[in-house]
Structures are given as structure tokens and as C-alpha cells.
Amino acid sequence: MLEDQTASPSEPADGTAAAGRVPAQSPAVGSAAGAAAWPDGYPQGYAVVDVETTGLARDDRIVSAAVYRLDARGEVEDHWYSTVNPQRDPGPTWIHGLTTEVLADAPLFTEIADDLATRLDGRVLVAHNAVFDWSMIAREYARAQRTPPVRQRLCTIALAKQLSLPLPNHKLESLAAHYGVSQQRAHHALDDARVLAEAFRPSLHLAVQQEVRLPLHACRPLSEWPEGQGADGGTFFDGHRGRGPRPYGHGWRRSRKRPACPYPNPGRYEPGGRLVQGMRIAISGDTSVDRELLEDRATEAGLHISSHVSRLTSLLVTNDPDSLTSKIVKAQAYGTPVVDEAAFGHLLRDVAPAPGP
Q: Rounded to an integer, what distance in angstroms lies between the CA atom of residue 285 and that of residue 299?
């Protein structure tokens, strides 16, 4: 059995040390992949990532993060884990197990940003539902006024679909069971990252055998983050080494309900034409400009921002049109036009007024 021999100083001493071990590739898969020439166009290294968070919204925070670094052929190089003080209520403790007391002395994200960046630098970020993990990481770096050194990500859900793996669903436990990987502590970032690293390796070798092009997508760091102070009325805990409550973090602002669009929906966007006030706009995936700012601009231009895609949706904005998010799948089914963020930004400069009565 091949084991990661690198001990992380921040690895917990709570019985999860065994989660640092990733077995060697099974002989059947390893030998077959070894016999085939390794593709020149494949990445030279991977960072298998898992983050646990206070929730799923754009203003939620990371409470723990883990990274397994793998070489070009998926062999483990080292691993790293840290809890993170979110400077607020830790959220669903019944899921991730991290309580206010546990996180009170944990480092702030700004204090682990360099360590995390070192482990991501020059590698493809691999995660299960990668758009979520990447979005959370990108937002934390934006709050810290930093840029994460990640240029591409790979979602193991998309890879499993591309390989046509016979899974009953695309949960991590189903992927793990398919490869005989044992989960020791679900929703613990270190163990989830270990499980994913162990399942990703045979998937990577299978992709080589099948001559599959990996589903790589660009990681666009947030270029803007709204200025602001702490969350008025939010729930905080006396969180960082006894220094008292802190603001939520640089640039945080609470999600809010937007006013109803005053214009009727004029219908779908016609490619090559102009946006018209009242059009229903949906956005899928990560954006280079913070999502809330992008939505603000659309709302100010007289557009209706929708949280879902339906037959009434005028336009879908996404930087990853080939990903299989529910919004993109529905847009394809309904024939909804799709543009990327750059094109949408250009269209926002010249939105046509709503038709008169």
C-alpha cells in the first residue's frame, strides 16, 4: 500500500489521521493505464479539495478545508488540513461537526490563505461538485483582497458522467462505493478529500484508457467584492483567541430580497440583438465579478434576475456552458439563449427601454 508520508502540522489529533492514507492504484487499472501512453495534454498535477462551510449561500464562509496534492498520474504527494474561524455562527454543526467552541481558536482564512495557495498553485483543482468548492474559495480570497493561484478545475461528477460509470446517483458515497473506497467520516473535509483522491485516481486512469478529454473548466477569480462592514444583527461568536467578536470579513454584505421588476417580460433575447428591460435573466456557475454585483447591474438596467430557469427565461449567463448544472440542462431543454459573462457585460451597456403601452 502506498501511503502519503507527509504529516501536516495542522492535521487534527481526533482520530482522523488515518484519513491521510491513500492506497495505491489497483493493479488492474494501474497496469492498463501504464501500458497506454500518458496523454501529453493532461495536467501535470492536481489539488483534490474539500471545504466545509457555514451554509450554501454566497455570503457563507469556510469552516474547514483540506487538500490532497496528486502528481500527473494521480499518485498522492502530500495532504493538508485546517479548520477556519468563520467569524460568525458555524452553521450546520450536525453535518460538519465543527462547533463554536472548536472554531474559537482556529485561524482566520487570511491566516491560512498562503498555505492553501501554496497547495493549489499550478494545479488543477479537483472537487465533487467543483463549482461550489471553487466559488467558496474564490469568495474567501476576494474578501481577503487576494487572488487564488488556480486557473482550471475538474468536477468528478462531470468526469463520472463522461466515463459513463454505472452509478445509482452522483453522490460522493456512490462514487466511493464504486471503487471500493471506505468513508470513515463523511463531511469531514480531510476524510472527504481522501475519499475523493482515492476515487479520482482510477477515474483518471480510466480516462486515459478511454482516451477521454478531461472536463476542465476555467477558474475565474472574483475581480470585485462589495465594500462593507460587519453583518448588522448577525450572529457572531467570540471567536479569535479571546480578542472578542470581529466583523464578518472584508467586503461582506447580507443577501437581500430584490424589488420586483417594474417591466413586463418582453420574451426571449434574440442573439445578436439588444437586451430589453423586463427580460428574465438567470446566472449559472461562478463569475469573475461577484455575483451580487453583477445582479445589481442587471437590476439597475431594468432586467429581472431569476434564481431558476423556466420557459419564461429570456437569457442564461454562464462561463461554463458545457457543465451539467440544472440551469444549463433546463436552458438546453427549453432552447433558452446562452451567453458568457463577458458578452453579458457588453449587453448591459445598451439595454433597450421597455416597449410602451
A: 19
Using DSSP bridges, classify how beta strands 62-71 and 45-53 pair: parallel, antiparallel or unpaired: antiparallel
> In which region does residue 285 sit, left (phi positive, over 0), alpha (psi from -120 to 50) or beta (all else)?
left
Q: Dihedral (C-alpha) 196, 220, 60, 305: value to the nearest 10 degrees?
A: -120
Nearest to 98 by CA among 158, 42, 35, 54: 54
Distance CA 220, CA 324 (A): 18
Q: Tell me 289's DSSP state.
A: B
CB atoms near residue 314 (< 10 Å): 22
**What's the pTM?**
0.67
Contact 60, 254 (CB under 8 A): no
Would the pLDDT of 50 be above 50?
yes
C-beta separation of 109 from 143 below 8 A: yes
CA–CA gap between residue 98 and residue 82 (Å, rounded): 12
Kindly state the cell numbers that stand for 110. Answer: 487570511
